[in-house]
Task: inverse folding
């Protein structure tokens, strides 16, 4: 009668083995999703920007976040102030979530939460 | 110890945060016999034949009750296992050992012992479930954060530092997922509380070695 419970316990133990593997992989490509999500956590707003605008930001000395370079194809991820973002001509705000538009974008600008500034 | 806890922790137990689908009752394994005896007095619920740790409503205004095991002091603390019993078997969840006794609230003639928010928040963040059930666990953690006070946040830090590095990573990963969730009907809207989640994550990371 307790077979279902035993099966659930087995599945939970199995998932903990997967979790242990994921933890061991955290510094490698498997961990990039956590690192990318971690960047998004600090973003109050996310904006997709043009490649040309991203070039200009880099030329002006804005440093891209390293986790973007771990992705394939790489993304340029900038944290900007509102004053730095407003002059960017081609920008479109998207929700801060893991959705298709955000995942497909090659260049993104984020505004940090006030507490992160 | 499920989604109804944040509701009951609201002022006057106003229950506005989450619409619960069922009630989870954590049974300390050393109290199993006493709980089993009291079940004989329960009316309006009947044990499920398929899964005897679940009691199903026989009256329309009631919801399902799940009895789950908690082993805080035994030799198997932290382990997930089946507590075998013909009448009331329990799936004992290892992470429930993080729970600490909190306040007991009185509603009519019922005394309802609740866990403190900190342990339950971490237990929810360590959820191994995926899909909507996993998202609901994370949103329950958010609901608990919304009723937490400064001392609860300090307790989360203390409990967090007692976790293994692997579980700490899982908890941080859970918070990052919570920050990016879409709203689900009848649950707190995570998009309105992202600052709170970011601040808690930042707080937990203060002592992390840089990777």
Result:
């Amino acid at each position: 009668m307790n077979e279902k419970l035993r099966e659930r316990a087995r599945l939970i133990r199995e998932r903990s083995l997967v979790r242990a593997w994921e933890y061991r992989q955290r510094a490698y490509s498997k961990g990039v999703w956590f690192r990318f999500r971690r960047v998004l956590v600090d973003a109050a707003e996310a904006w997709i920007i043009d490649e040309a605008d991203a070039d200009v930001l880099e030329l002006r000395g804005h440093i891209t976040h390293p986790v973007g370079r771990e992705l394939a194809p790489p993304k340029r991820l900038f944290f900007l102030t509102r004053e730095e973002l407003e002059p960017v001509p081609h920008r479109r705000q998207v929700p801060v979530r893991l959705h298709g538009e955000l995942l497909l974008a090659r260049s993104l600008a984020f505004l940090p939460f006030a507490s992160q500034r | 110890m499920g989604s109804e806890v944040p509701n009951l922790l609201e002022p006057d137990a106003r229950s506005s945060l989450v619409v619960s689908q069922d009630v989870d009752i954590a049974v300390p394994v050393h109290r199993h016999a006493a709980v089993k005896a009291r079940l004989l007095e329960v009316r309006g619920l009947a044990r499920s034949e398929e899964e005897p740790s679940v009691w199903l409503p026989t009256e329309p205004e009631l919801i399902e009750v799940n009895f789950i095991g908690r082993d805080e002091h035994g030799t198997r603390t932290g382990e997930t296992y089946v507590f075998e019993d013909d009448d009331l078997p329990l799936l004992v969840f290892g992470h429930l050992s993080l729970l600490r006794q909190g306040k007991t609230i009185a509603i009519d003639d019922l005394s309802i012992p609740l866990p403190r928010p900190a342990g339950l928040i971490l237990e929810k963040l360590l959820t191994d479930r995926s899909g909507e059930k996993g998202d609901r666990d994370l949103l329950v953690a958010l609901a608990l954060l919304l009723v937490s006070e400064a001392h609860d946040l300090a307790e989360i830090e203390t409990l967090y530092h007692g976790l293994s590095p692997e579980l700490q990573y899982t908890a941080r990963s859970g918070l990052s997922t919570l920050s990016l969730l879409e709203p689900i009907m009848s649950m707190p809207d995570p998009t309105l509380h992202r600052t709170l989640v970011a601040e808690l994550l930042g707080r937990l990371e203060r002592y992390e070695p840089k990777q």
